[in-house]
Design goal:
heterotrimer, A mainly alpha (358), B alpha/beta (508), C mainly alpha (382), A: 358 residues, mainly alpha, 14 helices, C: 382 residues, two-stranded antiparallel sheet, 16 helices
Amino acid sequence: MSNTKQDIRKTSHNSFTLIVNKFGVFFMILVLSVVGVLVSPSFLSSTNLLNILNAVSYLGIVAAGIAFVIFCGQYGDLSAPMTMATTGVICVEFMRYGLWYGIIAAVIAGAVIGMINGFVIGKLRVNAIIWTLAMNFILEGLVRWSYKGTQIYPDMATEKTYTTGFFLPIMAKLDPNIMDIDLVSRAAAFNGLATTYPLGVPLVLYVMFGVMITGYIIMSKTTFGNQLKVVGSSYEVGKMSGINATRTVMMAFMMSSIFASIAGVFMTSLNQVGAFYIGQGYDFQAVTAIILGGMSLSGGRGSMIGVFGGVFTLGLISNILTLLGIGTFTQKMITGAIFITVVAVNAKSLRKLGRDYA
Amino acid sequence: MGESAIALQMNEVSKQFPGTLAVNKVSFEVKAGEVHALMGENGAGKSTLMKILAGSFADYSGEIIIGGKPVQLHTPHMAKEEGVGMVYQELSIAYNRSVEENMFAGKIPTKGLFVDQAALRKQSLESLAKVKLEDKIDPGTEMKNISQHESQLIEMAKVMNDNPKILVMDEPTSALSSEEVQMLFEIIREIKKEGVAIVYISHHLPEIFEIADRVTVLRDGKKIDTCDIKDVDNETLVEMMIGEKIDDFVRDCPGADCNDVILKVENLTHYGFVHDVSFELYSGEILGVVGLAGSGRTELGRCLSGADRVDYGRLVLDDEEITVKGMSQMLDKGVAYLSENRKTEGLALRLSNRNNILSTIIGRLSQFFFFRPKKGDPILKELYEKLTIYPHDPEITTSNLSGGNQQKILLAKWLSTKPKVLILDEPTRGVDVGAKKLIHETIVKLAEEGLSVILLSSDLPELVALSDRVAVMRQGHLIGDLTKEDGFDENKVLLAANGERGVFSVEY
Amino acid sequence: MLKNELDKDKLLGTLNHNRIYVFLVIVIILMSIGAPGFMRSSNVIPLMKTSLLPILVGIGFTFVMIGGNFDLSVGAMINVGALMVMGEFNRFYAIFGGEPAGAAAVFGAWTVAFLIALAAGSFFGLINGLLVAKGKVHSFIVTIGMLTTLSGFVYTYSKGNTISANSYALVDIIEKPLLKLPYIEFFTMRSLITIAVLVIFEILLVKTSWGRGLFMVGSNKEAAWQAGIDMERKIIWTFVISGFTAALGGILFATSMNAAVPNYGERGINPLMLVLASTIIGGTVMTGGRGSVVKTAVAVITIQAIFNGLIGMGLGFDSQVLSAGVLLGAVVLYEAYVLYKESLRKGERPALLPEAEKLKVNHRGSKSKVSGEQSPEAAQGA
């Protein structure tokens, strides 16, 4: 009765939807580019394109990290904004010993935050949204509480500065000569991070591409990335395939937090101040970019190339709206509406194919 | 009960699934006030037949007559309206809510705008009285705090609230102790007195003889016969269920001279799941493990493979003493476990076949943190040929394959790890005849090549045909062995699993 | 022995369900000791008044969570309600003739403005609900998108400015104490409306078959479906209620101040954090199926009491943010840990438990033979 030859059903259909899923975002970019050219002739100029990329470079770094979490089937990392702020502050604290000290301290702090997130979510199976939201609030509380509501400026330090903060009081205790540090030149180096333009291109853009490429390699070429794909598709299957699912989830969250900490360092440098509100809104924007880029919220599907496409799309939309003279807030509204529409349409088309929903 | 009215009549009912005819023109009838047992091996079509009755399928063919009136049962709601009540094996209970809310979900009594709490309490107690729990359970208790056995009775009470004419119970005793079974039977007898027709699905022969009035046996989707329980005995029933083997594949090489012990298990215990299990496994041997639902068969497999915790016991694999730490460790040591839940634990259906098959050996195919998919190509090619998986393209998404081919992919996934001991939990569940035969052949070939297999299966012909030895589990314990030298057949195995002593070669 | 254990479980369960009342009492005692003047009328009344907004928002949030979803857009909904009631009042006040037209214009304009603002909140909630229930998109995604859309919307609506009503008539009515007595002063139109809405929704939840059905949906979708409960419609309603109560909270808050800002909660304590923490601490289960709006309200008051007490102890505003975050984190962890422990025992055979106890004793005696020690990974497998 049974005939194994019947099993080729739907395969051709599938590869078509696969292409749409994979490259739909680039079709969107094409359409937006046409619209852009119609709106302004200078749209395709290299200056404008560079502007677009520059504007989304911070977002690109954060999105590359959160993409690991969504690939892992965990919906998102809402602690990213405060991870950015916290690590930015920590970077400012440590950059007084040298820029690299600051950056390394920030990345370590990011890794620790990610590890905690990953442990709680991977081991205790807490809803990722609730936990990372709670983590975001905890971090916000930590930063605001330890700074007693003040902000930290890289180039300014009085006696009072060393009474607040995470590590500053300890630093002052360990090193009585801390006031003698040449803060001005160190702060200049730190603040310069966001304003350096090697070869006429902002440094942060290089970093974004670096992070994206690293992310791409980790996600698709490494042992971890391939195990993540299985765990992301189905946690239970991953676990029952002899993959250490807890560790895999933990590493996904660590990727997210480490990338967020890199973005946090640059963001803090750009603002020339460390404060709790740096990074606000990046969680949602990153998730928007990732979903636009065709990554499935149910995990295991999508790629870093799509994420880049999604990030670039957001940049294009914002650029075109600005060229049209539409204000930031209306832009936010429009982006939100586009996001909801894309997600709804995406969910519907997936459901029609009898697949799981976004 | 004498001659009473026909409550349910099914005429030439069929249900087609892609690839198989699960129910093939089955006709049978149930009288009001009788307990009608429905028996058959796994895959015989009992569950499908009952799901038709419960309105789970919109596309069955044939005629169903309830109380003399032809009815259409295309949705669960229609079935309920026509007086069909189902108690599934998997209880549908909201554990966060109280007993009374569960019992009256969707039909809570109201007075004006509000819930009539007094009436709800009164009705709940009346309803609980039907299952003799009115003194034992406060209807306000959360379901979470109710034992499994009482939950089942509550589920029954809930179904009885709709005053069904026909009550279907699917393996109701699988999780119950013998006293609890007795209590359940008492209640079934009460319900029977009220003239309700009861369809009782079970594997447990002694229970059938105790509670049923008549029995219908299904085999391969067809009805074999309906008889009065007085006219049959254990042996005849088993013979009816098993019949002539369709899968007449018998292993000719029983691996008789394989005498090296590859795996030695002593007092393996996972508290509350598996207690004090000891056995030895020889290389090249196929050890069948049989046990009724709830006997701890699957749990034994999970413990051995590191999927579940091992609280106590000793494990020696290939002369190496092993402390079970987890699945990846056991996989490295050479123990692979094919789960019975293909869809939830076995395969990531949204991934490609390649991804699924290689998922167990990502680490092994890696060098310096980098995964080398190319290294998997020869493995894929070999497994595709060995298992004749169709279509040949490993990039196809697994969800697009038939059940049989998916099961082959699952087997391939575990074979890719090159295990020393392969634990197969229901390796042919939901698989068509062709694929089943192929999987059986593969298992035997593997054993001949020296692989030791532990076969956990409720498919008796399969178990008997493939196994060199059959170990019997009952209520978390391994209670005995049946060896090939002494001879075993399905009959003997089924009796042993049902707790009949004296059939064992070795008894623990 | 098993029976005893069940009773113990039951007792602990009951205690856990009502933990928020225990919490409140403990907090009150601690704060009364630590912060002098904590129980004074002049301290209690502001404390209660700051609780009014989160209590209203918490109603809808709790409903949504009981249905098994999240509404992260409540913060933006507050702003929608607040700004629209002010903006629409000014618009209609002018249409109805402004000051010369007297009380009739004021009354008419407020009525219309209230209705429009409430309708806006409910409408956005409806969209959330439709996308979640019919579109089958995860509620987190839908509502975070709505959050962004609405925060853009409120800035566009208000052009980034604070909007004040062109009449002070309502402030006087809505914030005027009914009786000028210590403690009793708390009762104003605003607090009474809040309490009334709270009671109505608690009744809807607990006393009607609609509410019982919602619990069923949140607790076990399969069981609800078999019982013939219309799940989609219930889920949509929970989001409408959430939009409605959040907008109402914003409306009452704005009218009590006679001003609305587009960024309420962006720099201070995030209302979402407060409401989420209160809902979870108040015993609403994260996966749905259990919860109470009254308990959420009590949790709001408890957290506000902690905040207030921290200030009274001389700790800064920032300690409030930290304490709320830590409290939320601790409760989420606790709930998760309990569920995790339960999951390890899933599938256990009760019939084997007495024997398991015996075996445990025996095995402890012969420890040398233990080879299967518990490891993190193995434990996780269960």
